[in-house]
Amino acid sequence: MPQRRSNSWGVNTEPAGAWKADRTTAIGVAMTSLVHALRCGQILLMDGAMGTELMKAGLTPGSSSESWNLSKPDAVRRVHAEYVTHGARCLLANTLLARPTAHDSSTTPKLDWARVIKAGVELARRECPPGGFVLGSVGPPVTTGRPSACDEVAGIRWQLTQLQEAGVDGILLETQTSLAALGEVLADSKPTVPLLLSFAFRTTSSGPMLADLNEGPEEAAKFAERWSGAVIALGVNCGREMSLKAVCDVLRRYRRTTKLPLFARPNAGTPERRGDAWCYPVAPQDIADATCEMVNAGATMLGGCCGTTPLHIAAMLEVLGRRASAWSPSI
């Protein structure tokens, strides 16, 4: 067996196969590896946005980015590859809304969503670096224009099962805005891989709040604690009018409430209309300038959400590299 290699953050950087040789169950492998990566002192670097990157390749706004796992897999694979080249060690599969209940059947072509999920996981796995992770992405319930919220709860549970069967290392339930809705999803779920929860807040006069204006970061953290048998990390992503300063505020309020590992995947700002295009105002250097503050606020995993690019991830890596010898890609 090859000797263990650690960088100066203290994280194990040996190939994934060596990590898993002495584990006996799939959930034990994934749980042990991910928890170690999140708790050992290294900042685990995730990827950035998928949808806005695919739009640059021709994806029509409002259409299903997940369908490209089957129709244009090379485009999806190239996005993953670019993020890895620029430093990402944790990739999100292109599966955010990969379930039939999240789409209007009258406007979305009929798809084999199980195949979409399997292909999405395989594309991410193909580009994942040694010792890295592939997480399944699951978006919040979509209820507008749907028969009922119950359909989406069942749809998300189905999606969780499909992702587990596809072989992800964990599942990120992201951009969540309702504790009640997420609680319904988790109530009868039986995950066989670790879960990560990430909430999307809106900026209000009282600070960051979820869709229910009585629910702030503290309530989200307490919710995650109640599910801590399956949930291994708590994060913040996306959001409405959420500055990088507001993201750091959420992290600090999380940390005062929970001991779970924390992570942040901020947007590249709120998009602005410029001519025929939407532009995101937060540049890679802006993300770089906020990286240390996010880490000091408690984050042990960082990445990006809407509008972020491989250059934003590279900017984070450059800052982290000044503090320690993080995993070094070929740029």
**Domain module count:** 1
Average of per-residue pLDDT values: 86
The main pleated sheet reads as:
8 strands, parallel
Low-confidence stretches: 1-29, 323-331
% residues in beta strands: 15-25%
Number of strands: 12
- What fraction, in percent, of the residue positions are helical? 25-40%
Strand order of the largest sheet: 1-12-9-8-5-4-3-2
Question: If you compute it from the alpha carbons, what radius of gyration comes out, rounded to the nearest whole angstrom?
Answer: 18 Å
The class by helix and strand makeup works out as alpha/beta
- Run of helices and strands: HHEHHHEHEHEHEEEHEHEEEHEH
CATH hierarchy, class: Alpha Beta
CATH superfamily: Homocysteine-binding-like domain
Please state the second-level CATH architecture. Alpha-Beta Barrel
Number of helices, where a helix is a run of at least 4 consecutive DSSP H or I residues = 12
Oligomer: single chain
CATH topology term? TIM Barrel
Q: What is shown here, in short?
A:
The chain starts with 15 loop residues before the first helix and ends in a 10-residue tail after the last helix. It has twelve helices and twelve strands.
